Amino acid sequence: MFFRLLKSVREYKRPAVITLLLMVVEAMIETALPYITATYLINRIQTQGESLDLVHDILPVGLLMVGLALVSLCCGGIGGFTCARAASGFAKNLRNDLFAKIQSFTFLNIDKFSASSLVTRMTTDVYNVQMSFMMAIRTAVRSPLMLIFSVAMAAYMGGWLALTFAVVIPVLGIGLFLVSRKAMPAFHRVFKKYDRLNESIEENVRGMRVVKGFSREEYEKKKFGQASGAIRDDFTKAERIVAINTPLMNFCMYFNMIFILLAGSFLAVRGLELRNMEAAGQTLTAFQSTVAGLNINIGHISALLTYGMSILMSLMMLSMIYVTITISAESMRRIVEVLDEVPDMTNPPEPVYDIPDGSIDFENVSFKYASEAEKFSLADVDLHIPSGATVGILGGTGSSKTTLVQLIPRLYDTTEGCVKVGGRDVREYDITALRESVAMVLQKNLLFAGTIKENLRWGNPDATDEEIVEACRLAQADEFVQSFPDKYDTYIEQGGTNVSGGQKQRLCIARALLKKPKILILDDSTSAVDTRTDALIRAGFASYIPSTTKIIIAQRVASVENADMILVMDNGRILNAGTHEQLLETSPIYREVWEQQTNGGEQHE
Q1: Is the separation of the CB atoms in 39 and 302 below 8 Å?
Q2: Virtual torsion, Cα 154, 158, 159, 160, nearest 10 deg
Q3: Contact assessment for residue 347 and residue 430, using Cβ atoms and an 8 Å cutoff
Q4: What is the C-alpha to C-alpha distance for residues 224 and 216, in angstroms, rounded to an integer?
Q5: Rounded to whole angstroms, how far apart are CA atoms 113 and 91?
Q6: What are the strands, taking DSSP E only, across 355-479?
Q7: pLDDT tens for residues 296-354?
Q8: What are the angstrom distances between the C-alpha of 12 and each of 6, 8, 78?
C-alpha cells in the first residue's frame, strides 16, 4: 500500500534520496562524537593530566569535533529542507492524483463515496500520509541507525557494562509497542467520525437558509457539537494511552543513568585499585582479574551515558514513528481505495469521435443502479426520437425521468439493452466526444465561483462576448444581467448564492445554448421561472438550435404541450407516448394532470 502511494513521489525522488543520505551521515557523525570525546579528550586528560599540551593535544581534537558538529548541523539543516520539499511535493502530487482520479469517476463510482469522505481523504488523510512520508525519509532512517550505531559503540566501549541495554531496550520496546497497539483502535475510529463531521459542516453551510428559516441554529450547533465531541473523546482516549510513553521513557532513562553511574563508578575506581595492586606484584583472584581487565574509566562512563541517551531517544522516536505510521495506515488505505477504484465505463478500443446527428433510440432498455438490486429503475423501454425533435416527459416523483435521460450521455450504462445516438450504440463513442454533443440543464444546476462570463464559457471556452449576450437573451437572462453594476463581469459566489433560483436556471440554460449541442436535455430546469418566461425560452430554442434534439422534463403541461412527442412515465416505465391532443384522448394520467393545472389555475411567483 505504501509503495502504491510512492508512485506519486515522481519528480521529488532526488530530494527524498538526498535526505536519506544526509541522515546516514548525520547519524554516523553523532555516534562518532561521544567516542572521540571519551577517547581523545576525557581519557587523555585523566591519564596525562598536566603534561597535556593545549595546542598539540587538545586543540586538534577540539577543532575536529567542531568540524564534525558543523557537518552534522549542515546535514540536519539541509536534510530538513530537502525532506520538507520532498514531503510537500509528494502531498501535492498525491492530491492531484486523487483529484484527477475523481474526475474520471462515473456517477456509479461517485455513488460509492460521499462528498464529505472524498474531502477528508484529500485533506486530512493526505496530510497524515505526508507526515508519515516525512518521518519515513528522515526520522525513520535516522532513529534506527542511531539505535544500531549507539548499541554497537556502547558494547565496544563499555563491555559488560553495556548489558544494561539488554534489559532496558526490551522493556522500553515492548512497553511502547503495547501502548501504541492499545491506542490504535481509537485512532482508527476517528477517520469515519471526521467524515461525519465534514458532512455536518457541508450540509449546514449548503442549507444555511433552511436552517435559519426554521430557526434550527441551536439544533445544528448541538449536532455539530456531538460530532466534534465524539472525535475529542476518541483522541482523548488515545492520547491518554500514548501519554504513558513519557513516564516509561523517563523510568528507563533514569534507571540506565543510575546503573551506569553506580556500576561504572564502582568498576572504574575498583578497577584502578586492582590494576595498581597487580602492578605492585599482588596476586588477584579470578573475579578481581576480570574487574581489572574491564578497564572502565571516566571516558567510558561518559560515552555510555551519551549512548544510553541516544538509544532511549531513538526508541522513543521509533515509537512515535510506529504510532504515526499506524495512524496513517488507515489514511493510506482510504486514499488507495480511491486511487484503485476502477471507472465502471471506459472508451472502446477504437472509439468513434463523430456524432452524426441527435437521433436517439432506446432498444429494450432496462437499468438498475446496483447489480444486487432486485427491482429495475427502468424497465423495457423502447423509444425512438428523430434528430431535431422536441420531446416532453411528464411523470410523478420517482418515475425515473432523470434516470432515463442520464443514459443518453452515458452517465450510467444500461443494464440490459442499448441506447443509440446518431444510429450508434453510445458505448461505441469516445466518452468525451459524446458528452460534448449533449448538454444537460438540471433543476439544481451549479454555478461556480467566478464571473458570469467565466461560468457561461463552460459551455464554449471560445465564445465571444456577442455570442454570450445572444445566448443570455434567448435564455431570458440578459435583462437581469444588465441590471447588475458589473453586468457580465459580475462575480458569482460559490454555488451561485448571490443570484436567485430562477436567475441561476436561466444562466445555466444560456451556458448549455453556447455549447450548441446535438442533444439538449432540460431536467425540470425551468421550474423556478414563470410560464411566460418559460414560453420565451422554448421559443428561443426553436430559433437558435432548430436541428438540436430537445428533451424537456417538466411538471407543467404548458412546458411540453407543443412538443412533437410527450412521454408519460410511471414506476420506471413509459405508459403513454404521443402529442398533446393524442394523450388527452388516450392517457387518463395526462388528462388528469392537464385538467388540474388548467382548471386549478397553477400559481407561480
Answers
A1: no
A2: -100
A3: yes
A4: 12
A5: 21
A6: 360-367, 378-385, 390-395, 416-421, 424-425, 438-442, 450-451
A7: 667 777 777 888 788 777 877 777 777 777 778 778 888 888 888 887 778 888 888 98
A8: 10, 9, 15
